[in-house]
Amino acid sequence: MSETSPSLSLPYIQPAQAQKHVTHNEALRILDAVTQLSVLNATLTEPPALPNEGDRYIVAGTGTGAWANHDNTVAIWSDNAWHFFIPSEGWRADIAGTGDVVRFDGSAWATVGGGTTDLQNVPEVGVNTTADGLNRLSVASGATLLNHEGAGHQLKLNKATAADTASLLFQTGFSGRAEMGTAGSDDFSIKVSPDGSTYHTALSVDADNGAVQFPSGQNYFTDVFILNDGAYSFMVPWSNPSRMMMWLSVNMGGRFHLLAVTGTMTNAGNFSEILSSPAGSLSFLTGPLTGTTGASGKINMSIESTGSGPKMYVENRLGSNRFFTIATLGK
User: Fold this and answer.
1) Full domain range(s) for residue 299
2) Of 4, 16, 209, 277, which one's alpha carbon is 20 to 30 angstroms from that of 33?
């Protein structure tokens, strides 16, 4: 019969053994030392000057002093002496005060997870909230920061096939209100919804050629103050060729205009007057307007097609500073 147990080397009481209590107490001392192993420190190479009864340590590196030749052992201070226990591969110990867990690999102790909590291949992660099978990463916070590590930073959304969806969904009360991404195809789109079920595509970019479309049409609105004999210009923000209806009004009684803006934006031929009050008070030109280019007493409009894109001009020659409202409907 063996004299010790195979795992913890606990001494067995032998047949007809005298002073059985000595063997029994030695086994209890070993169990007390290594069961539910928690140590005060695992980085010391020399013993503390004033240990307390029952203090346990892991001898780190090359032990010195009373710990010499006891490298990597579990040292416990008991009965005014150090007692050492040789670990087996797989032993784990909790570091009191820090909560770190170390493991003996057969030759050295190492913090489990390489010094950090091991988050590889975990099924779900919840930060200040509970994740689930659909939202496997869930964060409840006032903000979420994804920072660079010295250069740029990319946020990647990958889908299996073109028919699947990779998008950012913006919600109110967990009901969708806006979505941007590649939904159902590889075309990029921006959609909005009033109720989370019916979506309207505001913008779509063709993946094959980069062409931009506004499937729901486009509205443009601005209020602008134009000095007398001054001009206001803006880059045409709608489609080109254009199919727009424009409303132009001034803060003067009975002064308003309704016109169409159609075709490839190049010159005065893009304008078609539908209604003007008073009649004959609106004229169309080609090229930039300076403030005194068009006829006096009128509102003059023009298209300039040079540069990075078509530009529209509105010139105030009404004889006084005025507010202008410009609104469009169409594409």
Assistant:
1) 218-330
2) 16
